[in-house]
Write a structure and sequence with these properties.
329 residues, alpha/beta, Four Helix Bundle (Hemerythrin (Met), subunit A), Rossmann fold, 2 domains, eight-stranded mixed sheet, 13 helices, 53% helix, binds guanosine-5'-diphosphate
Length: 329
């Protein structure tokens, strides 16, 4: 009898232990599942995460139809990519999309392809190189001139600045501060002087002093009757009369101005031969899609990017880094 009770007790104990073991196993496997859902290895390995990249993966995760592709186009337009570049990009991604493709990676690739090879400043080594800086007031022209002077100075080039924005109050003082900070020579006249006359003097002075580069500031808005664009063409003609040649005409554009910035850019490119864009304030909340609009609609490359108010906050534009950033926005 007693051995029967002992056996029965043993059976109960074994069953209880087995049940407890099962419970422990269940808890640990459900923990493992939660962990793997939070951070699967495949997500960690992808090129860009967050923002547009993740929205894109959600949208195109299933087999996408017309509606999903339209939504992608809308998302790109919201990122300021523009009504021409957005459908172009969607078509390119759609053509390459397949079952195992990462749509964010495809879009990143296609943005880089659309932008073409990176373009850098082209300045001569054997004579005075001249850079004309144009753009509306507030876009960051003066700050860019200071940063560019410092960048060229760090490449051992001797830089002269021409304060040809003689219209805006305090423009002369502001450029003077940047000349001192960057170690550049400054040529200026009194406020209200003829901008062409300042540019003429600056070409002569820079040549006489053996400067490598002359950076010419220009007005962003005029208080005279003479239209701004005519005045810019005049400055260019005067530079040539003084024996200089404009190598680069850089349009400074505030990245946060969106479509308004595109309209400004169009006006400038129609009036002067813009060779490149400097996109400023890319450190803010700017939706940098404007880079694609400038490239596609105006045919001008972005050459430099401003990423802050400090003297070192100017970088050459890199399409790869830009595309990666746009997908994170
Ligand atoms: P300008 O009127 O075109 O000469 O413009 P300024 O150079 O005076 O710049 C206008 C404002 O934008 C100033 O407060 C600058 O410090 C600021 N700024 C210029 N470039 C940048 C940039 O890349 N990032 C940020 N955050 N601010 C900038």
């Amino acid at each position: 009898m007693s051995s029967g009770i002992t056996i029965a007790l043993l059976v109960v104990l074994v069953l209880a232990a087995a049940a407890a073991g099962l419970l422990v196993m269940r808890r640990s496997s459900s923990l493992a599942r939660t962990g793997s859902t939070a951070e699967p290895a495949s997500v960690r390995a992808r090129p860009a995460t967050g923002g547009l990249a993740d929205r894109l993966r959600d949208l195109l995760g299933r087999v996408p139809g017309d509606q999903e592709w339209t939504r992608l186009e809308e998302a790109l337009i919201r990122a300021d990519v523009g009504a021409k570049a957005a459908p172009d990009l969607v078509d390119r991604v759609r053509a390459r999309f397949g079952a195992d493709a990462d749509p964010a990676e495809l879009l990143q690739d296609e943005i880089v392809a659309l932008l073409g090879p990176d373009a850098s400043l082209e300045l001569p080594d054997d004579r005075l190189g001249i850079v004309l800086i144009v753009g509306v007031n507030g876009s960051g022209k003066t700050t860019t001139i200071g940063k560019l002077a410092a960048m060229l100075g760090s490449e051992n080039r001797k830089v002269t600045l021409a304060a040809s924005d003689t219209f805006r109050a305090a423009a002369g003082e502001q450029i003077d501060v940047w000349a001192q900070r960057s170690g550049a020579q400054l040529v200026s006249q009194q406020r209200g002087a003829d901008p062409g006359s300042v540019a003429f003097d600056a070409v002569r002075s820079a040549t006489a002093k053996g400067s490598d580069v002359l950076i010419v500031d220009t007005a962003g808005r005029l208080h005279t009757r003479s239209p701004l664009m005519e005045e810019l063409s005049k400055v260019k003609r005067v530079i040539e009369k003084a024996g200089g040649k404009v190598d680069e005409t850089l349009l400074v554009l505030d990245a946060s101005t969106g479509q308004n910035g595109v309209a400004q850019a169009r006006a400038f490119t129609e009036a002067v031969d813009v060779t490149g864009v400097v996109l400023t304030k890319m450190d803010g909340t700017a939706r940098g899609g404007i880079v694609l609009v400038v490239r596609e609609e105006l045919g001008v490359p972005v050459k430099l990017v401003g990423t802050g108010e400090g003297i070192g906050d100017l970088q050459p534009f890199r399409a790869e880094a830009f595309a990666e950033r746009l997908l994170r926005e």
